[in-house]
Amino acid sequence: MSDRAAPGQTRGRGARSNGSSRFDSERRVWVDDGWGGPDEWQDGAPGIRTTETADATRTIIARNQSPDISFDRSINPYRGCEHGCIYCFARPTHAYLGLSPGIDFETKLLYKPEAAVLLEKELRAKSYRCRTIAIGTNTDPYQPIERRRMITREILKVLARFNHPVGIVTKSDLVVRDLDILAPMAEKGLAKVALSVTTLDHRLARSMEPRASTPARRIDAIRKLSEAGVRTAVMAAPLIPSLNEPEMEAILERARDAGATEAGYILVRLPLEIADLFQEWLETEVPDRASRIMRLIRDMRGGKAYDAAFGKRMSGSGPYAAMMGRRFRIAARRLGLNERKLLLETGLFSPPPAPGDQLSLL
Fold first, then answer.
1. Which CA distances in Å does 239 have to 50, 111, 234, 249, 264?
2. Which is deepest, 132, 133, 142, 165, by most CB within 10 Å?
3. 136 vs 21, 167, 283, CA distance in Å?
4. Nearest alpha-carbon partner for 269 in 217, 223, 309
5. Which pTM was predicted?
6. CATH number of the domain residue 266 falls in
């Protein structure tokens, strides 16, 4: 069970606690001993500031063999995510750093300053075989830190020079900043972007995803990308039963009207520490529906908060999950979504000459 955080810590954040991770033997508990308590408990105390630390990673392309996702390699420029989405399935990864999956995940960020250099090195390896690289599969590549660090942008520059295909998933309209790179790549069939739109309700989004772009700005990003020739998709993800799930059809329609041609959905995933964090948030933000929402989630997860089985983890099982799947398929067909999915081009991949390379005479 996570430990509730001080009021000052939660201001502008998604998590309501900053408890120890599953690897820690101790539990941190805030206690007012009658002497006034720590400063962050005082009225008007400022929230926790976000800190940024360089991550000295030695490789940048992560690989997976999961049978239920469409890519086998990905890049995550950042660890942790300031968007603060309470449901984020990446939260438990902060435990490997000795940090809390709660507020630490949103405030203690790691960035990879050598990402572009490492990527170029890995793409030049003689053993490398080109397949689409996914960006944004764990934490968001366009979270606020990207405005200053521009690591995602530098990665895209490398991919563009190598004619390497890329698929991006984000909740931020900051992706539009990089249209000067993405549009020429898209013209060659090398780029597509998916915007995750969880709700059209501004208030719910502000609480559930406190530092992500507003729903309206995400829809506008779909429009701008589409107008620039970048194939776009909408991800109604994650869908939370009895909370944002009723908006599924409205989200798909708004995105289609903005230019999206593909769509997908994912049932909320609550592995490890996320289940307690998410339930705390429900009890704070929607106490009248908290028990119903968790009951529906468990009904779709075989009685548990989460089922990690391949083939079930994205969509769940049982009558309610089947109903959601039917609704999605009917809406997508009615709106003309997914009629033709874009397969990115891999045949154009060609490492450009490196400084000092011997040029060919032929």
1. 28, 29, 13, 12, 11
2. 142
3. 24, 9, 29
4. 309
5. 0.91
6. 3.20.20.70
Inside any domain, residue 23: no
Residue 11 CA, distance from chain mean position: 21
| pLDDT tens, residue order, the chain (362 aa) | 446 555 556 778 999 988 888 888 777 666 666 666 556 555 566 678 899 999 989 999 999 988 888 899 999 999 999 999 999 999 999 999 999 999 999 999 999 999 999 999 999 999 999 999 999 989 999 999 999 999 999 999 999 999 999 999 999 999 999 999 999 999 999 999 999 999 999 999 999 999 999 999 999 999 999 999 999 999 999 999 999 999 999 999 999 999 999 999 999 999 999 999 999 999 999 999 999 999 999 999 999 999 999 988 999 999 999 999 999 999 999 999 999 988 999 999 999 998 777 655 55
- Which amino acid is located at 282 in the chain? L
Written as one string, the DSSP assignment of 7-22 is HHHHTT-S-SB----T
Does some domain include residue 129?
A: yes
Residue keyed to tokens 């790179």: 181
**Is there a domain that residue 344 lies in?**
no
